[in-house]
Amino acid sequence: EIHSHQQALRQCKDYLSDHFWTRPLIEEDDTAEAARRLSEGKLPKTAGVIANKACAELYDLEILQESIHDLKHNLTLFLGVKKLGDS
């Protein structure tokens, strides 16, 4: 499953449909909260999060892919992350 704020999920829908079409998309209150929950082990180990680079650094998450947003001229940049050490 992929967790993030609804706006981030919408802004990355092409990437998600191409790469994670079988995974449920779970709306969170905000991207940082999703990243925090992942880092604290409150999400399944197989879960991914859409958040920004600052969240990945703050919560010690591994960046899987950068610039996954659909509109490249959009000023909000999203990337996929996972907890370090998890496969």
Proportion of residues in helical segments: 25-40%
User: What CATH architecture label applies?
Assistant: 3-Layer(aba) Sandwich
Order of helices and strands: EHHEHEHEE
Counted by DSSP, the helix tally is: 4
Organism: marine metagenome
GO molecular function: prephenate dehydratase activity
Domain Prephenate dehydratase: 1-83
Keywords: Amino-acid biosynthesis, Aromatic amino acid biosynthesis, Lyase, Phenylalanine biosynthesis
Please describe what this structure looks like.
InterPro entries: Preph_deHydtase. It holds the Pfam family PDT. This is Prephenate dehydratase domain-containing protein. Pathway: Amino-acid biosynthesis. One of its GO terms (molecular function) is prephenate dehydratase activity. Helix content is 32%, strand content 26%. By secondary structure, the chain is of the alpha/beta class. It has one domain: 3-Layer(aba) Sandwich (D-Maltodextrin-Binding Protein, domain 2). The longest helix has 9 residues, at 31-39. The chain is globular, with a radius of gyration of 11 Å. The chain starts with a strand and ends with a strand.
Blueprint (SSEs and pairs):
Elements: E1 2-5, H1 6-11, H2 13-19, E2 25-28, H3 31-39, E3 48-51, H4 53-58, E4 61-66, E5 79-83
Parallel strand pairs: 1-2, 1-3
Antiparallel strand pairs: 3-5, 4-5
